[in-house]
Amino acid sequence: MPEDFVIAHNAEPGTTLPYLLRIPLGDGIILKTKEAWPRTGKVYCHRVEEWPDDVDVTERVPVRSCVRRGAAIDLVLNRGRENRSQFVITNARGRQMIFWQTARTSKQARPAVTLPGSRPSGVADLEIAVDIRERYPFTFADRQATTRRAPLKVGDYGLVVDGTLQASVERKSLADLVGSLTTGKLKFQLTELATIPRAAVVVEDRYSQIFKLDRVRPSVVADGIAECQVRFPTVPIVFCETRKLAQEWTFRFLAAARVALSEELIGELAVRGLEAAPPTPAEVRRWAAGADIAVSDRGRIPASVMDKYLAARARGEV
User: Fold this and answer.
1) pLDDT > 90? residue 142
2) Which of 44, 76, 143, 220 has the most crowded CB, counting CB atoms within 10 A?
3) Phi, psi of 263 (to 5 degrees)
4) H helix runs in 131-242, sequence order
5) Rounded distance, CA 184 to CA 133, Å?
């Protein structure tokens, strides 16, 4: 009887492969990998010699079948969704390489694009709040952003300024989108997202995949999405081809939202008859010192501090 398939967090400092897998084959095959499941593309894996003694296990799934066939390991889990996958062992440039894939991701066309490294909307210090309930979140590891875990009242990724959620993005796989749409959960989520000044739903797949669904009528899903967009026009549902592109879209959406928020604060000052010109760094530093906000004595004022200053000024506290 096969043992369980185990997924855990990789506590190795500075790793770009944040998950550990234990495949119940032989004495157990241990891998570290970038994703917890190959949902939108093949996932690179690297062999690990030993399973750590003190490890944070995130998922333990019973296995129906685990068989090695030549250079591949076929894994079938005992659950309804995301139950069949394959580990392909190959060699490239003189070293062993392992890729984790499903039938869908092995056929999926990958966009031939190189993501730009420029700052999003000119923002140099974007901080993204990641909901504490998000199990396998975007890391934004190669983007110009920092993340922090926080409870968000709606969405999975947000822009929080002065304690208020100003923008939010709900992330969904195609399976999650279809499931929430058919159960009616999606409309409740969109109702909550519509209360945020700027919000969106990003889907880690292509719109065309809707019409390849086999467990639900594609027309039902397509009609449901169209109805949601008509009913909630301020919350776009954006389809991105891959998880990586969905992360990039989220990154740039939140950066643009922060720039727009700063512009609104300056505009509000102008409407109230106050000086609309940006304050000097010295003015912001004096205010920050009085508000017990850490800011360096030299260099550029972080945009997050500037946002707080403008918000306080709009409230007449400066």
Assistant:
1) no
2) 143
3) -65, -35
4) 174-183, 185-193, 218-231
5) 20
